[in-house]
Write a structure and sequence with these properties.
The chain has helices spanning about 15-30, 35-50, 55-60, 65-85, 90-95, 105-120, 125-145. The protein is mainly alpha-helical. Helix 2 (about 35-50) crosses helix 4 (about 65-85) and helix 2 packs across helix 6 (about 105-120). It starts with 13 loop residues before the first helix and ends in a 13-residue tail after the last helix.
Length: about 160
């Protein structure tokens, strides 16, 4: 009998898991040049642009009264996304599903994020975060569409 897919493998000890996480973070930093200080700058500068943007600023202003906690969460989020730190443990989908946004908003978000990433990060670092940002935007757009009872086909975009 063949072995099933190895999801049943013996779990790592806490020490082994910590060592594997530290190695993943070190590898991501070495490959991209991204570190926690750059994540902080990326998040701060990006959200400065968002708050000044005619399309996105009203959406964010309606949801966020105190930017400090939001920025702190976003730094944890992007640290987890870009460096595999594992420090973010939130659930972004439910928060985004109720927002009055569509493809235009996600495209603008991506454009501002990419501009900021390319200003601050190495080409490899910018590409690293943009691959992930595009996937996140696509997933959130699908979630928003689904929350509005719209089933998107392959390649379709959500328009309110």
């Amino acid at each position: 009998m063949t072995e099933p897919f190895p999801f049943h493998a013996t779990p790592y000890t806490p020490e082994e898991a910590r060592a594997r996480r530290e190695a993943a973070v070190a590898r991501a930093k070495a490959e991209t040049g991204i570190d926690e200080a750059l994540i902080d700058q990326l998040v701060e500068r990006f959200y400065d642009k968002v708050r000044a943007d005619d399309l996105l600023a009203p959406v964010f202003a309606a949801q966020i009264d105190d930017w400090g906690p939001h920025l702190a969460q976003m730094k944890l989020f992007w640290g987890s996304v870009a460096l595999s730190t594992g420090l973010y443990n939130g659930r972004p989908m439910p928060k985004h599903m109720r927002l009055p946004v569509d493809a235009e908003h996600f495209d603008r978000w991506l454009a501002l994020f990419e501009a900021t990433a390319r200003e601050l990060l190495s080409p490899a670092g910018a590409e690293h975060v943009m691959v992930r940002a595009r996937r996140i935007a696509e997933s959130l757009e699908l979630g928003v569409a689904n929350a509005n009872n719209v089933m998107l086909g392959v390649g379709e975009r959500y328009r309110r």
